[in-house]
Amino acid sequence: MADKKISELAPLSSESLDVADVVPIVDVSEGVTHKITKQDLLSGHQHTLSDITDSGTAAALDVPSSGDASTSEVVKGNDTRLTDARTPHSHNHNAADINAGVLGITYGGTGLSSLGGAGQVLKVNSSGTALEYASDNTGGGDGGEGSGEANQNAWSNFTVGSDTVSASTTTDTATFSTGTTALTISADTSTDTIQWGLSIGTTTNTIAAGDHTHTLSTSAAGLAAQLPTQDGTQTTKFLDGSNNWSVPPDTTYSAFTGDSGSGGAAGLVPAPGSGDAADGKYLDADGTFTVPPGTTYTAATDAGLTLSTTAFSLNLAEKNAWTGPQRSAFYTSYADDTTTFYMNTAQNWTWTVTSSGASGVTFELESGTTALTNANGQSGYILLTNSGGTITLNDTVTDAHADVLNAISSASGTFLINYICDGSKVYLTNSKALT
Are 382 and 351 in contact (CB under 8 A)? Predict the structure, then answer.
């Protein structure tokens, strides 16, 4: 390479230099040329962030090592929030939050920016496009009804179309008039009714009403006004189907007629006479109160039977000789192997014992009553048919010799058992096997 002055050398960009390339450095104070590598040249020159005046606010922040950036980091291009559309959430505002502008009708407002004057009403304008304030007696919209709605019990002048309705609070009337035609409405507080009349020209005419309905007043005066006029005799009359007060037919009756051989006639029951009840009288078919025939009895004096008025009593202490047979049929409805005999059921019973046997056989007055007090003196028979079943007795209620059980228990055959009750126990004897 020929010697050249430094000013004659071709320029070289820093990007094309390798870190090991040599760069000549001229020490002008000594007139000596030195060499230095690009790496050594760059390592000896540094700046802090504060030395860079246009670095901006993001230069001091780091990027996240992974994921989305925090509040102290710089957002990278792969931050998921850069692709989030973030649609606003549904929310509401209170009326107090709206403090400016005019709220349109579409959104529930009036579309008006100021309040109307005293006594004015809000109505739709004549073109039907917006709301406006108007006086309440102009007849525009429904404004003319303001005073009537405020006090429905008072009349006041108001306008319908181009005509004024004159009202009188002293007579409770209102007159609608146009030209020579007028309609008068009046309230009758005594009957709670509304009356009306129509005049055409100078003549008052009755106009037939078309299809319409009326609400019937429920007050006493209102209801009375719907009924025909009363003449003071209505206490015995009723309103009939012809809307007239009349006496109902067939409401006067006489006592029934008794049978005298050809039949009687229907009617009311006649009143009994004084003492008829004490005499035991009843209403006879002939229409009179009489003592029924065949109700007078005479008791025999030798049988202990006495009669007091209509009640008989029998003195059982008397000795009586029965001339006819007295029988008590066998009760046959006990189930096989039954263990309880009810004294009030019968006097004589049949009893079947199978090979299953009957344990703890006892006697009671009736179901639910174990005491035998009222069975004192009762005696009878039990016809036993045993198929070899074992039989035991309730020793508290029964009393029998050991030979009784030896004969009938675990044996096959038919046995006749005799019993008698002393009011506390039942005593038993038996026969040998009959078959």
Answer: yes
Whether 204 and 187 have beta carbons less than 8 Å apart is answered as no
Yes or no: say if 339 and 361 are a contact pair by the CB < 8 Å rule: yes
CB 345 within 8 A of CB 365: no
- Burial string for 98-109 (b: 16+ CB within 10 Å, else e) reads eeeeeeeeeeee
Q: What is the pLDDT along the chain (435 residues), one digit of tens a residue?
A: 567 776 777 776 666 667 677 777 777 888 788 787 777 766 766 778 788 888 888 887 888 888 888 888 888 878 888 787 777 778 887 777 777 888 888 877 888 888 888 888 888 888 888 889 888 654 444 444 433 333 444 555 666 656 666 666 556 777 777 666 777 777 776 666 776 666 666 554 545 444 556 666 667 666 666 777 777 776 778 888 888 888 787 767 788 888 888 888 888 888 899 999 988 898 888 889 998 887 666 666 666 667 666 677 777 777 777 788 888 999 999 999 999 999 999 999 999 999 999 999 999 999 999 999 999 999 999 999 999 999 999 999 999 999 999 999 999 999 999 999 999 999 999 999 998
* DSSP secondary structure letter of residue 137: T
CA dihedral 119, 121, 127, 130 (to 10 degrees): 120
User: Do the Cβ atoms of 253 and 268 come closer than 8 Å?
Assistant: yes
Cα 22 from Cα 209, distance rounded (Å): 124
Q: Taking a C-beta distance cutoff of 8 angstroms, is the pair 319, 300 a contact? A: no
Q: What DSSP line would sit under 197-250, residue for residue?
A: EEEETTEEEPPPP-S---PPP-SHHHHHTTSPPP-S-GGG-EE-TTS-EEPPSS
Distances (CA, A) of 241 to 236, 246, 248, 252: 16, 10, 11, 20
All residues at 6 or more sequence positions from 354 whose CB lies less than 8 Å from its CB, including other chains = 336, 337, 387, 389
Name 384's bridge partners: 351, 415
227: Cβ contacts below 8 Å, ≥ 6 apart: 239
Q: How far apart are CA 142 and CA 159, in angstroms?
A: 11
The helix (run of H) or strand (run of E) holding residue 121 is strand 120-124
- Encoded tokens for 260: 């005298």
- Both tokens of residue 116? 């109307």
SS3 for 89?
coil
Domain-by-domain residue ranges, the chain? Answer: 120-148+155-163, 164-200, 330-430
**What global pTM score does this model have?**
0.34
